[in-house]
Every structure is written in C-alpha cells, then in structure tokens.
Design goal:
Layout lengths: L1 E2 L2 E2 L3 E3 L7 E4 L10 E4 L2 H9 L6 H19 L6 H12 L7 H13 L5 H40 L5 E5 L15 H9 L4 E6 L6 H13 L3 E4 L4 H6 L5 E4 L3 E3 L4 E4 L2 H10 L4 E4 L5 E2 L17 H4 E6 L2 E6 L12 E4 L6 E4 L2 E3 L3 H6 L3
Parallel strand pairs: 6-7, 6-9, 7-8, 9-12, 10-13, 12-17
Antiparallel strand pairs: 1-2, 3-4, 4-5, 10-11, 11-16, 14-15, 17-18
Helix pairs in contact: 1-2, 2-3, 2-4, 2-5, 4-5, 5-6
The structure holds 5-S-methyl-1-O-phosphono-5-thio-D-ribulose.
The site of 5-S-methyl-1-O-phosphono-5-thio-D-ribulose (MRU) has 17 residues, from helix 2 and strand 11.
Keywords: Amino-acid biosynthesis, Isomerase, Membrane, Methionine biosynthesis, Transmembrane, Transmembrane helix
InterPro entries: IF-2B-related, IF-M1Pi, IF_2B-like_C, Initiation_fac_2B_a/b/d, M1Pi_N, NagB/RpiA_transferase-like
Protein name: Methylthioribose-1-phosphate isomerase
Amino acid sequence: MLVANKDYRTIWVNDTHLPDVQIIDQRHLPHRFVVETLSTYKQMATAIKEMHLRGAGLIGVAGAFGVYLAYRDAMYRNNSVEFIQSAISEILNTRPTAVNLKWAIEIVTSRVENIEAIDEKVTKALEVAKELANLDAESCRMIGVNGLPIIEEISRKKNGETVNILTHCNAGWLAFTDYGSALSPIYHAHRKGIKVHVWVDETRPRNQGAALTTWELLNEGVPHTLIVDNVGGHLMQNGMVDLVITGADRIASNGDTANKIGTYLKALAAHDNGIPFYVAAPTSTFDFALETGLGKIPIEMRTGDEVKYINGLLNDKVVDVLICPTQTQVANYGFDVTPSRLIKAFITEKGIIAPNTDEITKLNC
Ligand code: MRU
C-alpha cells in the first residue's frame, strides 16, 4: 500500500544474495514510520514476540522468513541440526494463537528438509518465504474482491447512502503482507466510489485500532471514526452499524473463531441487533485439525504492563502512562473465541464460506 507515495509491503528483503529481512516496525505507528532490519532468526523471533510486527497473516510470513534466517545463521554453525531445530521451535513458540505461524513454518521446513547442502537450503527457504509473502498478499486482494459484493448489496439497499462498518483491532494491510483481510473489502468498496464509513474500535490494551487501523484508513482516505471498545453495542442498538467485519487469528473446522479480545462481545451485540457479522480471513488461518474452537484454541496471555500502562505521545515524546495502582493484579487475555453460530459467513480468497464444518472442510482441498 502507498505510504507517502511509496509502495510498501509490511515485510520484504533487500535486493542482495541471501539478504536481510526488513519490516515496518509497527510499535512506532502512528507517530513515526520506522523500518527495522532483521539479520538473525533471534531478531525475527523477538520482532514477532514483542510485536514489532503483528497480525495473523504477517506473523505467518515473518515466521517463514525467520526459518530462512535460521538456516542462514546455521551456515556459520556447521549446519548444526540441533541449532536449526531449536531456532525453528523458538520461532514457533513466539505467539500461540494465530495458526498462520505453524502453517507457514511447516511449509518452509517441508520444502527444505530433503535438500543436503546448507547453502541450497538457505536459498530454497528464502524462495519459499517470498512465495508465501506473495500468496498472502494475493489472498488478501481476493478477500477484497469477494467481500466487495456484500458492501455493494447493502449500499444498494440504502440507495447509495453511506454503509457503516464496524471493525475490531487491526486486520488491515499491516496485519498481512498487503491489502489486509477485514479492511480489504472496505478498500475495494471505497476505491469503487461506494460511500463507506468505518467505526474503529480502539482495541485495548495495545490499541491496534486506535494506532494502526486509523492510520491505514487515513492513508487511504476512507472516512472513519475512532470509538472506545464499549461503544459498539450502543451504536448497533441505534441503527448506526450496517455490518461488522473482523479478522481472525485461528478458525476451527466448525467455524469457531479466535480473534482479538473483545470480538466475541461485538458478535453478541451484532446478533442481538440482527446485524451481519462477517469474519474475513485467508485459508491459512483455518485450523482444519481442530474440530471446535471453544476451549481448544490456545489463548495468548500477555504481560500485565500492557493493561497497566497506556502508550502515547506527550509533548512530542512517546511515553507510557500508568493508569492504575502499581500493585494491581492484571489479567491480559489477548484473544477470545466467537462461536460459529454468531458468524454470518467467512470472506476468504476462495469465496464466501458458510460457518459450518461441511463448507469449511471443502476449503482444505
Ligand atoms: O495481537 P495481534 O495484533 O497480532 O492480533 C491480531 C489482530 O490484529 C487481530 O486479532 C486481527 O483481527 C486478526 S489478524 C489479521
């Protein structure tokens, strides 16, 4: 996507033989646009764990590039099998909820494992990571193409009046290689001249909505309004939301969906108010090995400091502000699971999929 007239993806490599990996360091947005260079698998593992980059699709692609860096690091360690295995498992264990990480790592390792020479392994791992980055971007583009008719239909029913869409967290291009999942249909609609307006949940505690989704929408010129996380129900009761589109971090075979904490409450409110609740995600986010999601999808617990402190800009300086007594106990659940019965459909790169096991299983072909 364009940032200051330059076309960016969220992750790329520089144009050299066995290059370093570069990412947009999202911790600095929306205040500063910072590019970080990652030269070792350790740096990549830290970038994923500490959320220099985040979002299910991007975590997966970053994991793939992390495997490439692990093989590259191994070149200087006599191609040590133990080193490679421990590096890959370290990357795999950085974040537990988004299944894209496991998906991508397994693809790279399976395509590399039968190669003998370490330099050929490195070259192949890089080639596969690049392929997965392109696949992720193309899937997200197609999610936009497939989701567009949903917005067009509502716009028609409203005689061209503005379609109000609520979204949670950031499932835009920053959460993938490009385009995004939940935001991709919105970008497609906006570019086609359909009037849209987005209600952006701030998404405490890390405020991905406030910091990232607003920044993306502003960049693209899409009208939007930032709201605190508890406003959605009120808006829905008052006819101010036409549809909800969120992303997903892991979808079980029956359609139960893990997404950023608070998504379940939005789905409940949408259901109670007869508002369609869509989940947009590429096939790489479906965990076909998992029959159901409730109680089964691992929910990431993050540090309490993310809840106790709010990060923001004060007098041109980025600061963390304590918002509760220092000794307060905190529980920081990163994700929740929305049962499939509350989901109208999945918007995927392969089309619109009903939230049931039969339809979801067909995606795995
Ligand atoms: O913790 P994050 O920022 O990595 O969480 C991921 C998300 O941004 C959301 O849950 C998103 O809606 C799905 S990721 C495309």
